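User: what does the whole thing look like in 3D?
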Amino acid sequence: MGINMVKLGVNIDHVATLRQVRRAREPDPLWAAVEAQLGGADLITVHLREDRRHIQDRDVQLLAQSVRVPLNLEMAAVQEMLAIALRLRPAMATLVPEKRTEVTTEGGLDVAGRFQAVRRVVHRLRDAGILVSAFIDAQPRQVAAAKKADLEICEVHTGPYANAADPVARRVQLEKVRAAGEYILNSGMQFNAGHGLDERNVGAIAALPHVGELHIGHAIVSQAVFIGLREAVARMKQAILRAREG
Ligand code: PXP
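Assistant: Here's the predicted 3D structure for the full assembly of 246 residues, as structure tokens:
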């Protein structure tokens, strides 16, 4: 892998969202995972939510058995999800906050505020050989808490950057992500980023120094409706590559 390579984790939750609105068999997340891999996905991500609004337990089980790239399971840091992760052994787990009423993950995990509980879950997952990441806001106190909780990876929430109202606000948010990334790297952890990224706004994040993985879902699945998932993933990979080549 070239020094300039940033990996793309493709979140296929919303393939399951479309299936669940009809409680049907299609579209199948397993098929989506194959297409995403053929398009160049470096990881496949799914979020098994406590309310099972999209991905189901069976999906995670089948994906864990079949994907050829690392499977990243997004999960709340709670006992139920811990037990599932320990049983299915995804390559990677990303700890996320979860509220039943939210439309999507709204903010980062409060690692500092839930320190003991998070650290316990991190240790249980790591002991099982699972790589553990936490989805955090771009705040120094969360990075410091993540390091203390023995996390190996931090995924910085890029939602505030993606949703910034104007270019000035966007620059401010980008700088927060960059600074958090620098702190994460200086703390010896891997720096990932994600949420709200699309082909237009991904460039500035992909160009940040030593960012390891970008995790992208909604924009890719939305594009896939029109051009197919394989092509949508390939285009996102190209957008990332263009940014790295700068
Ligand atoms: N990273 C994390 C931790 C997430 O929870 C999500 C949304 O499920 C994403 C990345 C992807 O966000 P989006 O769907 O906006 O690309």
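In plain terms: The longest strand covers residues 131-136. The chain has eleven helices and eight strands.
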